[in-house]
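Quarterly update, task 2.4: L-tryptophanamide-bound model.
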Amino acid sequence: MTRVFSGIQPTGEQHLGNFLGATRNWARRQHETDAFFCVVDLHALTIKLPDGEVRDGSLRLAQMLMAVGLDPEVCTLFVQSHVREHAELAWLMQCNVSFGELSRMTQFKDKSDQHAFVSAGLFTYPALQAADILLYDTNEVPVGDDQRQHIEITRDIADRFNSHYGETFVLPEAVIPETGARVMDLQNPGNKMSKSSESPKGTIGLLDDPKQIEKKIKSAVTDTDGEVRFDFAQKPGVSNLLSILGAATDRDPASLAVDYAQYGPLKADTAAAVIELIEPIQARYRELESDPAETARLLAMGADKAREIAAATMDRARTNVGLLID
Ligand code: ATP
Ligand code: LTN
C-alpha cells in the first residue's frame, strides 16, 4: 500500500491555506493509503516562541487535525518529539547535505530575514524534514506548493545516501493539489496566506467566526477593471478569490469565472462557500477541545505505531552508514 507522510508545525492558528493546500487532502487520502501525519514540534523550536506555546500548540493542532477529519484509528497521528528517531536521523541527514544546498532554500531566506536571532536549526531545518519523511519509507508527501523545494532536497539527500552507503531510503514524491496549493493573502495577493502575515485581515483562520470571514472576504483587495477573469499575473486578487471558491466547491477556478459579471457576487459566494466548509470543522473542534486527556491518549497510540517503523529504518541507516552497532 502507498505510504503517505506529511507534517505541520504547531505554531499559530491554522488558516484556510493550510486546510486547502494540505490538511484537507490528508483527510481524503488517509482512507486509501497507509498514512502518517506528524505535528512537527521540533521544527517549531527553530524560532523562539513564548513559553508553553509549543506544548499547548501541539495539543491544539492535534485536535484541529482531528476536527478537519483525520481519524487516529485510520491513520497514524503523532507528535515528532515523541519518536526520538527523528532527531537521530536528522544528524545523518545533516552530514549528507551540503552548506550550498541548504543556502538555496527559499523558506530559510524568507524566515531568516524576519528574525534577529537566526538559529543553526533554522538553517538545517530541511535535514530534519528529510529525516521525518525518509524514516517512514514514504512514497507520497501531500503538501502545499511552498514545500516543493523541501521535498526535492529530501530526494537529493536520499539518493546521495543510497549511492554512498547502499539502498537505505525510498525516494518520495510531492503531491500538490490542483486547486488550493497556494492560497494567497487577501490583502496582499502577491504573498501566500500565512499565520505570520502582517495584516490579520489577509488571513482566514479556521476558527474565525462567520461574520469575520464575510468581512475579510468582502474587503479582499481586487483591482479596478471590473472584469472577473482567472489570470494570476494580471489579476491576482480576483484569481485568488476564484481559486478559493473553486477549491471550496471542488470546481475549476477558470470555468467559474464565466458565472460572474461583478466582484460583489463573487465575494459573497466565496464567503458563503468558505463558511459552509469551515463551520462543521469548528463544531467538531469545540467538542474535541473539552477532552485533552483523550487527545493525549490518541497521540501516544500514534507515537507507538510510528516508533515501530522509525526504529527499523533507523537501524538500517545506522548499519549502512557504518556505525559500530551496539
Ligand atoms: P506559515 O507561512 O503560515 O508560517 P508554514 O508554511 O510554516 O506556514 P505549516 O503550518 O507548517 O505552515 O504548513 C502546513 C502545510 O500547509 C504545508 O503543507 C504548507 O505547504 C501548507 N500551506 C501553508 N500555507 C499555505 C497556503 N497559503 N496555501 C496553500 N498551502 C499552504
Ligand atoms: N516544512 C514544513 C513542515 C514539515 C513537513 C515535514 C512537511 C516538517 N516536516 C515532512 C511534509 C513532510 C512546513 O513548513 N510547512
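Highlight for this quarter: The first strand starts at residue 3 and ends at 8.
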